[in-house]
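Ticket #4471: structure export looks truncated?
Reporter: QA, pipeline team
Priority: medium

Steps to reproduce: submit the single chain below to the structure queue and open the exported record.
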Amino acid sequence: MAEANTITLTRENFDAVINGEKPVLVDFWASWCGPCRAVAPVIDEISAEFSGKIVVGKVNVDEEAELVQRYKIMSIPTIIMFKNGQAVEKIIGARQKNDFVDMINRNL
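Actual output as written to the record:
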């Protein structure tokens, strides 16, 4: 199995990453959030499985208030799919892996 290549996104690198050539899956999370911790291994699996096809990034909502406001994150985890710099689909809350995979496949 390929190794997870999840990157940490901050306000400094966020725009450059989402405007790249590949679609980007962004996980807005926090360390104190139980559902976020439940989803984290799934996001890492997806990162490994879709390596080379998409970029997977994580935004710590406690550290990146500017990004939280920009994307109106009200609940976590919130997972947003970006394509060509635009948010194209969003999942709020912990879900099964196949829900995330389906979202990715619709946006490849």
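Status: closed, not a bug. The export was complete when the record was re-opened. Leaving a note from the reviewer for reference: The mean pLDDT is 95.
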